[in-house]
Design goal:
Elements (H helix, E strand, L loop, with lengths): L3 H4 L23 H11 L5 E4 L7 H13 L9 E5 L3 H15 L6 E4 L16 E4 L1 H8 L11 E6 L11 H21 L8 E6 L5 H7 L8 E4 L8 E9 L7 H8 L3 H8 L5 E4 L3 H14 L6 H11 L5 H4 L3 E4 L5 H12 L5 E4 L13 E5 L2 E4 L2 E4 L2 H8 L10 E9 L3 H9 L12 H10 L6 H8 L3 H8 L12 H21 L3 E3 L5 E3 L1 H8 L4 H7 L8 H9 L14 H8 L18 H13 L7 H26 L6 H16 L14 H11 L4 H11 L4 E11 L3 E10 L2 H6 L8 E7 L5 E8 H7 L1 E9 L6 E8 L7 E6 L4 H8 L1 H4 L4 E3 L14 H5 L1 E3 L10 H12 L21 H19 L3 H21 L3 H8 L46 H17 L5
Parallel strand pairs: 1-6, 1-7, 2-4, 2-5, 3-4, 5-6, 8-15, 9-11, 9-12, 10-11, 12-15
Antiparallel strand pairs: 13-14, 16-17, 18-19, 19-22, 20-21, 20-23, 23-24, 25-26
Length: about 1050
């Protein structure tokens, strides 16, 4: 092994004077840093460093940043470097360190972690160094073509690149790196003369196939340079010990893990050498149980000063009895303040033993002389799995940090049956493989939306830029391919894999493919990519029927795959069951049947508890709730926009999804009792007392609420309507516009969604209105066509705020449609005997009660007949016309009736109309139509009595059932085909007509003419008001 002290080089030989402050913590670079110095600091080539944990690899990132600054002239306005680490703890650690180191140089750092927020581009606009996670940077780069800021990235730093093999997070890291390579290629092709390049620097723990990583990170100049340093170059000598313990065939993993708690005291006493020890446990509860057992079994020798510091620290933390005995535990469920105190005490050496979970091994820099891995099994999604070799090396790497220690020991506690296996693993290294093939469908959709992929050939080209392609060529069996395949065969298999996933996307409507396999994204696919939604979750969305209420949509959310890593722990069930059902306290709005048994039921319970403002005492549940709501905000927004794309029979689901998305953002139900828009003075005082704030605080809250937007919605129907459609005018305005012009409490991006639906659950209209738009115009109005619904004429109007509860408006409005058009369409068969009709062109508001006869009965259209279909009645009309040529044409439309001997025409018409009214009366279903027909029947009957006074007519009315009623035809003849509607101003009106007995001989020609006029006039007097 090399003597590292002789190979450390002074920093003054390699860095400019103004960059010395960056490395003020140590005077020399160690061996690993010195070996990488020339390639990192004096070239722009891509670089990969593979070195043991604790060898100072973070310094290589700082050297790369300095290289970027050295070759960029000041001011460094457009300099952007991105640091990407697998966990937020690493990002926070580097952020705190680099903020101190680079702020004197004029560089600003921005930590960009957490779940997806859509409007984050402004956060990085003025930042030089961006620290983020793969998931966050994935969401940012999914729209890099829409924002030039991402194209300004000149340096891309990847920490812990070996995480690319992780089954859940590795695929995201792999896709992000490949996408950044695509950004570089696009920028180079667009601006070849600018010679703008993006450099990639990656570091990793010891892995055997670092050359594959270098091939993956290649550019147009070839593969990246890599530095491979094995464990022999470790700055601190590490002793590795594997201990095997007996485990019976009937002993469960849980019992075996408990039995190891009683072995830890002896191991610490043997290997710790009175120095800090770090014990890794598989579960949160395991850390607490092991700490409690050790506190009983072991006693640590402490000085008086040491005990005094312990007394101060133990009085603050939640587990003082353990800390007072020199034992602490640390995991994500511990309060942040407690975690900081525990980390500080362990760093100073005041806390001899710290129990923690695997998360701490991912980069939190805590010193330890001894690292103990209690059991090689971990609990993942409710089942036991072995730690991967990368995880074991990561945990072992926490031992012997060079700035804290000179030697270290690592102890692995496992079953006696697996002891030899782990002894070999400590000497051998696990090959890093890709996990992209298991998560290909989501990332394919994202690239299709980015237009990186538009056909299957381009999909294969994209695959060639991934680590999956590199490893599939070298180890095809790991990915399900035959070992005998050559490069072409493997590429064919990869293309087949792409096509399979593309068909899955197409089956749900996320993409569209034609016969030539040309691929285009759909609006649903764009939403999936924009909000980073899993494919299984989008399949759940496609199952929404459209009639779901708020409770049903909450059910759709908690089954989302994004919540699959939320685990249900045994010690949480009691608290969750109390939130679900408890007679002595407030519980959730929609109780869950039975006990809480699954993680989905846990997610459902925590969502409702937060929205109901029910306090959760368990800190672990509080943390899970925060994570659920970070994820739930984007899932609920995606669901609301996904349903908004559909129109038919989804109104109820759209409204409730918009309300649910708003509730997730506000963390309150839409009708929560805690919402009070107009605070009074007494309420302000109470509010101040509850929050333990000084009195002005209540008035400030009230002022903010007053300056929230207050909306007003008005609807008015226009007189243009028919039996199938109507026009309404929607107007939205701000009641407090004057107040909002002086001050606004809502953000500029705040908006309200206006949704109108009909009785058939169809979405009639949907529009987003921003407050800025309403303030500029004073109000907003829109003409809307409303189609008639089958189940009623009432429409529902909802105005839903995007962020605030208590501002929503809900109204009902009844739309009026033309009664004749509906009446005529329903009883078309009844009018068939009266000839063909068409609707008139008048725009009367109520056609049933206007003065136009044509509005009531329609306009007659001639029924065309062929020549060979001439009837006796037509011959009679022709003969009648020829005999009446000498008479002046009458300006009215005439009824043409076949005459039956010995019948009064007035009586015949009256009987025909009465029968028609009876048929229509029995067919009408609605109450209003029945009332109208009753009025019509009464009027007709009264008039008929006044016009039939002869005794023989009364006698004939008694025998109407035996009469043969003639067919009445409103046929005007060929010469009247071009007539329009009735000329209402020139209609002829007659007084009571003279009654003539038709029981005698045949009338003459002139008598016949007057008879037809009399019939027409009498019909006008008995007109039915349709």
């Amino acid at each position: 092994m090399y003597n590292t002290t002789k190979l450390m080089f002074p920093k003054t030989c390699y860095t400019a004077f103004k960059f010395r402050s960056v490395f003020s913590e140590f005077p020399f670079f160690n061996y690993v840093q010195s070996k990488a110095l020339d390639d990192v600091l004096y070239t722009n080539k891509n670089f990969v460093a593979c070195a043991p944990t604790g060898s100072g690899k973070t310094v290589l990132f700082e050297l790369a940043i300095i290289r970027l600054l050295m070759e960029t002239p000041e001011p460094w306005r457009d300099v952007k470097a991105v640091y990407m680490a697998p966990i937020k703890a690493l990002c926070s650690q580097c952020f705190e360190s680099w903020k101190k180191k680079f702020s004197p140089l004029g560089l600003t750092c921005k930590e960009l972690t957490g779940d997806t927020e859509i409007d984050d581009f402004f956060e990085i606009q003025d930042s030089h160094i961006i620290l983020t996670t793969p998931e966050k940077w994935d969401s940012m780069t999914r729209k890099w073509k829409d924002n030039c800021l991402l194209q300004l990235v000149r340096l891309f730093l990847i920490d812990e690149v070996h995480v690319v093999k992780d089954a859940t997070r590795g695929a995201t890291l792999e896709v992000v790196v490949s996408r950044m390579k695509a950004v570089h290629t696009f920028r180079t092709s667009q601006y070849p003369e600018a010679s703008l390049s993006m450099r990639v620097v990656a570091v990793s723990a010891t892995i055997p196939n670092v050359s594959d990583i270098a091939d993956w990170l290649s550019n147009e100049n070839g593969p990246a340079i890599y530095l491979d340093m094995d464990e022999s170059y470790r700055p601190v000598k590490l002793r590795k010990v594997v201990l095997g313990f007996p485990c019976g065939p009937n002993q469960t993993e849980f019992k075996f893990d408990l039995s190891l708690n009683y072995k830890i005291a002896n191991i610490i006493q043997t290997y710790a050498e009175q120095k800090p020890a770090l014990v890794f446990c598989s579960t949160r509860k395991g850390t607490q149980q092991s700490a409690a057992v050790l506190a009983k079994d072991a006693r640590f020798i402490m000085s008086i000063e040491h005990k005094q510091r312990f007394d101060v620290q133990s009085s603050v933390v939640k587990h003082p009895h353990l800390v007072a005995l020199g034992v602490g535990y640390h995991h994500a469920g511990v309060d942040l303040s407690d975690r900081k105190l525990i980390e500080e005490a362990f760093t100073l050496g005041d806390l001899p033993v710290l129990f923690t979970t695997r998360t701490l091994s991912m980069g939190v820099n805590l010193p330890a002389h001894l690292v103990v891995i209690k059991s090689t099994m971990q609990y993942v999604a409710g089942s036991c799995q072995e730690y991967s070799e990368a995880d074991l090396l990561q945990m072992i790497g926490r031992a012997g940090r060079p700035q804290f220690d000179t030697s270290a020991t690592a102890v692995i506690m496992t079953k006696i049956q697996t002891r030899e296996k782990y002894l070999k693993l400590m000497n051998g290294i696990e090959v890093i493989e890709s996990s992209l093939h298991s998560h290909l469908v989501e990332h394919l959709n994202a690239e299709i939306v980015l237009q990186t992929i538009s056909d299957v050939k381009m999909a294969l080209d994209w695959i060639r830029s991934t680590f999956l392609y590199i490893r599939a060529l070298k180890n095809p069996t790991h990915y399900g391919f035959s070992a005998d395949l050559d490069r072409c065969g493997i590429e064919a298999k990869l293309q087949e894999l792409c096509l399979k996933n593309l068909n899955s996307l197409s089956s749900v409507g996320l993409i569209s493919m034609d016969e030539d396999i040309t691929i285009k994204p759909t609006e649903a696919g764009r939403l999936m990519a924009r909000y980073c939604i899993a494919f299984d979750t989008m399949k759940q969305f496609s199952k929404v029927s459209g009639t779901e209420n708020l409770s049903d949509l909450v059910g759709f959310l908690y089954y989302s795959r994004e919540f699959s890593d939320i685990q249900l722990r045994m010690n949480e069930k009691r608290s969750l069951n109390g939130l679900n059902r408890d007679k002595n306290r407030v519980t959730i709005r929609y109780p869950i049947d039975g006990k809480i048994k699954t993680s989905e039921m846990k997610v459902n319970c925590l969502i409702q508890a937060q929205l109901s403002s029910i306090p959760v005492q368990d800190f672990g549940l509080t943390q899970d709730t925060a994570k659920i709501f970070r994820i739930g905000m984007r899932i609920s927004r995606c669901l609301s926009e996904f349903l908004s794309q559909r129109v038919k029979a989804v109104f109820s689901a759209v409204v409730n999804s918009l309300i649910l998305a708003k509730c997730f953002r506000a963390k309150l139900w839409e009708n929560s009792p805690y919402v009070n828009c107009l605070f009074g003075c007494n309420f302000c005082k109470l509010y101040v007392q509850i929050l333990n704030r000084h009195p002005p605080f209540g008035n400030q809250i009230r002022e903010s609420v007053i300056h929230l937007p207050k909306y007003d919605v008005m609807l008015e129907q226009l007189p243009r309507y028919s039996s199938t459609t109507a026009e309404i005018v929607l107007k939205v305005s701000l009641k407090n516009q004057a107040q909002l012009l002086t001050r606004r409490a809502a953000q500029d991006h705040h908006h309200a969604s206006v949704v109108i639906g009909d009785a058939d659950n169809n979405v009639v209209f949907l529009q987003k209105l921003t407050d800025v738009m309403l303030l500029k115009g004073g109000s907003w109005s829109k003409k809307i066509d409303v189609a008639k619904a089958m189940k009623g004429d009432e429409i529902s109007v909802h105005l839903i705020s995007s962020e605030y509860v208590g501002l929503d408006i809900q109204q009902k409005f009844t739309v009026y449609y033309s009664t004749f058009r509906l009446f005529f369409s329903l009883f078309k068969c009844s009018f068939a005997d009266l000839g063909n009709k068409r609707l008139c062109n008048h725009f009367c508001k109520n056609k049933a009660f206007c003065a136009h006869d044509c509005c009531k009965v329609g306009v007659t259209v001639t029924r065309k007949r062929s020549a060979n279909q001439e009837t006796s009645f037509t011959s009679y009309l022709k003969d009648l016309r020829s005999r009446c040529d000498t008479f002046a044409p009458t300006p009215v439309k005439r009824l043409k009736v076949s005459k039956i001997p010995h019948l009064n025409p007035h009586l015949i018409l009256s009987v025909a109309l009465s029968r028609l009214l009876n048929v229509l009366y029995m067919s009408v279903g609605s109450q209003d139509s029945q009332q109208d027909l009753n009025q019509i029947n009464t009027t007709s009957t009264g008039h008929s009595k006044s016009s039939t006074a002869l005794p023989e007519q009364a006698a004939l009315c008694k025998n109407t059932s035996s009469l043969q009623i003639p067919t009445v035809n409103f046929d005007l003849g060929n010469e009247w085909d071009d007539w329009g509607d009735f000329d209402d101003d020139n209609l002829m009106h007659a007084s009571e007509p003279a009654l003539t007995s038709y029981m005698t001989a045949q009338p003459q020609i002139q008598q016949s003419s007057h008879t037809f006029q009399s019939l027409r006039l009498h019909c006008d007097m008995n007109t039915v008001m349709f």
